[in-house]
Each structure stands twice: as C-alpha cells, then as structure tokens.
Amino acid sequence: MAIEFLKLSIISSAITALTFYLIGLIIYCEDIEKLATNNSLIIPKSTNGESVIPYNKGETDFPIQNIPFGIFSDQGTQRKRPCTRIGGYVIDLEILEQNNYFLGLCTQSNMFAGATTLNPFLQSGPNCWHLIRITLIKLFSPQAELTNLLRLNVIHNFESVSMSLPVYTRSFTDFYSSRYHAVNVGTLFRGPQNALNPNWEEMPIAYNGRASSLVVSGTGVRRPNGQVKGTDGQVQYKASEKLDFEVEIAAVIGKASEIGMPVKIKEAMEHVFGFVMLNDWSARDIQQWEYVPLGPFNSKNFATTISPWIVTIEALQPFMVEMESQQPVPFASYLKQSFSHTFDINLKVYLKPHQSHQPALLSTVNYRDLHWSLAQQLAHLTVSGANLEIGDLIGSGTISGAEQVGSMLEMSKNGGIAVKVGEDVERKWIEDGDQVVIKGYSEKQGLRIGFGECSGQIIQSLLI
Ligand SMILES: O=C(O)/C=C/C(=O)CC(=O)CC(=O)O
Ligand SMILES: [Ca+2]
Ligand SMILES: [Mg+2]
Question: Which of 247, 398, 414, 438 to mutate to test the pocket of ligand 1 (most atoms within 8 A of CB)?
C-alpha cells in the first residue's frame, strides 16, 4: 500500500514538474520572441559557417576575424558604451561584462561597464586585449547559442545605433610621411627645386594637431573662415575657398610611455592598440598664407574626422608586409630598423557631390606606400622625452602613391585643373553639401578585414 502510494506520488510529482517545465518553456520562448520583436531584431540563420551571426564572407568589413572596438549608443537608452561588431550587428560589451562572460580574463574586472570611451579597456593591456578578442570569437562561433545573448539584449542592428568617438584623446599628432604627397605638395607650394626640405629624409616630419576638434564619422564639418592672401597680394578675412580632404590612417596608442624616456624603435609597436581611418580636413588657401614659419594652424584645426571602429593590430597581422628598404638610410641611430614592417591597407576616397549625392570614386591608395614606418614615427615623436598616452592619435600623413593621390590639392594641382567626379560633375575643391567618404580594408585569400566608413559633409561657412 505504502509502496503504491510512493509510486503514485513520484509519478504525480514528475507530471507536475514536467508541466511546470513545459509552461516555463512556452513563457521563455514567447519572451525571446517578444524581446526579439521589441528590438526589431530578427537574426537570420547564418550560412557563412564562420559565425552564428550571418554576413557575406569576403564582402563584409566585419567578419568574425575582425572584432573591432567602438563606442555606440542605442536609440532607447542613448547611453554611450563599448561594443564590437560582427557583420551588420553591434555587440554590447558592457552587458557581456556584467553577465560574467569576461570573468577572470583581465586583472581589471571593470573595463566596459559605465565606460563612455575605450580608454579603460586599453589601460588593461595587450594580454587582456587578446583574451577579450579570443573570447568574443568563441562566443559567436558557428556552434554558439544565441538565445541567451538575445535575452540579455546584447545584439543590436547596426542601422539602429549611433557611433561616437572610440577613445578620449589628449594628443593628436599628424605626420607627413608619404614621399609622393610631400613632393607633390612641396612642388605646388614652393616649386620643384624646394619641394622636399632637406630635413624630410632625415626625420619623420609632423605637426601637432588639435585633439579637441576630432569628430566621429558622420559629423557635419563647417567650412572654416580665416586669413587668406589673394593673387593680388591683398590679405582678406573670409570663408576658405580651397577646402580639401586628406586620406590617412591613424594609430591609436594603447600603452603609455613615461615622460623623459624615449620609446626605443624596437619596442615602439608594443604601444599601438590599432588603427582608424582619418580625414585631416585642410583649408589650402589659409594653409598657404599661415604655414611659414610654424606650420599648419587654422588651416587644419577646425575638424578632423575619424572612423568609429578601431581595427586591432592583432586582426591586421595577416596583412603585415615588409617595407621597401629606406633610401637614404636615416643618419640618426634611433631611427634605424633592422626589420621594418607595415600593413597592406587599401583606402578608397569617394565624393558624393551635393548635386546628386551619388558616390564617385576619386582615388585608391595604400598605407604601405609610406616612406617612414609607424615605429620610426613613434621613436621620433618621443626622442625628446615627450610621452605617449593611452588614446593618443598618431596620423600617418596624407597617403599618396605613384599614380593615385590622397588629396584634392594634388588631384586638381592646387585648383589648376578640374577633377571629374562621376559622369557630370567637376570639382577643384570641396563645395558646401558635398560629402567625402573614405573606406578602408585589407584583403587576402578571401579574408577581408575592413574599417567601415570615415565620412563628413560640408556645412556652409558662418560668413555666408
Ligand atoms: O607644408 C607642407 O608642405 C604641407 C604640410 C601639410 O599639408 C601638413 C600635413 O597635414 C601633412 C600630411 O598630411 O601629410
Ligand atoms: Ca595631414
Ligand atoms: Mg585636421
């Protein structure tokens, strides 16, 4: 009797448990559907076999091998926080951290929660950068289960978020390291005899830019006003009539150096976290009048646009290439390198004219064509004892090649000739309402690691 009763109660408990489980499952599934619909996030099943998140392999800039870092805010909370991206989806790193997905990986436990820039993450050091990247690659592997991540609201459609500056930058230095660009600009400004100053081949020349006017891709750029010397020799105060772009890559410093302690060339790359694209907007008429003797000032301090995603040095490893031997070999020992490498990064600049807004390709250049390496730039910047700080931006300088160039100044020969922009439009300089878009990517054997876009549209001057 007692045994019969025991059997019955076990069966009834099992049935109750099963019922609760099934009810729970139904609620749970509904919940996920609700969550997914609330976010209008319906993630199609992946077919690329590389990641649970779908994308077209070889077409997207953001395959799972990329894992770039940025700062986003969603429409709902509008709160800035760190993220990565796979295909067309942005992944919230704050929520992942708060739900212990990164537990024990880094010495710091709080790098993303409450952070409005990536500086605290960079502070955690190269070992941590690597482990976070590897963890994210595993988390979104083809075998991964998205259910929990959807419940946690970790994934957002890129189209539904806005991006901000990825780092807080106290120092922005811009180099002048493309021989093609320096010769072209020097010839246009000073004539062929004085194109390259004698110091150019001895050290990587640079100017210190204005960090406070760094803006993220998509921000409007107001046409600057300033002093200009006309062809009649008269100096005027007016809106720049020679507004230009410069196609560049900028290194993001991830490891600081000590003031008074130059960074050795061999160790220089250890200070670099990754790269963004950079457009060093330039007002050539203001530049030509102001730059002797102290270099660019108002002509380049009004806005500098950077792309929102920092592509890490680690993701760019497959695209590392040896630099051509440097001629002449620099005299200064601190600039000598036994092995010098750079990265094969294609950069394409498009103009969307205000008349049509149709993108027209103006030029294709490559980061590898620079004369001075990034390690040499950093060794030179710090040779005086100047220090590097986390978040500093080091612009490569305008990237021009033997055939194609990275500025309108060079394309139009300082406004001497009209440049074709698509079928029906011509430009000598950038007009109000024009949008300049730089796209960048490395590509090899079906693997494409890209940077996305670096764009800005010109707003009319306040003087008009
Ligand atoms: O004076 C010159 O020859 C030109 C200087 C620059 O344009 C400065 C600059 O931004 C360098 C660069 O982007 O390569
Ligand atoms: Ca520049
Ligand atoms: Mg600038």
Answer: 398
Q: What is the pTM of this model?
A: 0.91
Give the span between the Cα atoms of 278 and 394, in whole angstroms. Answer: 10
Pairwise CA distance, residues 394 & 249, whole Å: 8
> What is the Cα–Cα distance from 142 to 304, expressed in whole angstroms?
39
What is the token pair recorded at 402?
Answer: 């033997």
How is residue 178 written in tokens? Answer: 């493309």
CA separation for the pair 252, 395 (Å, rounded): 9
Phi-psi region of 433 (alpha: psi -120 to 50; beta: other; left: phi over 0): left
SS3 percent helix, strand, coil of the chain, rounded to 5, is 30, 25, 45
431 labelled binding-site residue: no
249, 277 in Cβ contact below 8 A?
yes
pLDDT in tens, 155-183: 999 999 999 999 999 999 999 999 999 99
Q: What is the pLDDT of residue 15?
A: 60
Cβ atoms within 10 Å of 332's Cβ, excluding its own: 12
Q: What span, in angstroms and rounded, lies between the C-alpha atoms of 404 and 363?
A: 6
Q: Which strand (E) or helix (H) includes residue 163? A: strand 161-164
The atom number, within ligand 1, closest to the CA of 300 reads 10
Tell which one of 173, 177, 185 to mutate to probe ligand 1, the residue whose CB is within 8 A of the most ligand atoms.
185
pLDDT at 42: 83
List domains and CATH numbers for the chain.
Answer: 70-164 (2.30.30.230), 172-459 (3.90.850.10)
Q: How far apart are CA 374 and CA 347, in angstroms?
A: 17
* 8 Å CB contact between 211 and 169: yes
Residue 357 a catalytic site member: no
Instruction: Give pLDDT, residue 338.
Output: 81
* ipTM value for the complex: 0.91
Return the DSSP state at 317: G
Distance CA 124, CA 454 (A): 27
How would DSSP label each residue in 44-61? PPP-SSS-SS---TTT-S
Query: How far is Cα 360 from Cα 379, in angstroms, rounded to an integer?
Result: 38
What residues flank ligand 1, with Cβ below 6 Å?
Answer: 174, 176, 181, 185-186, 189, 207, 246, 280, 291, 296, 300, 397-398
According to DSSP H, which parts of 237-292 are helical?
Answer: 284-290
Known binding residue 300? Answer is yes
State the pLDDT at residue 340.
86
398, 414 in Cβ contact below 8 A? no
Question: Which residues lie at CB < 5 A from ion ligand 2?
Answer: 174, 246, 280
Are 280 and 209 in contact by the 8 Å Cβ rule? The answer is yes
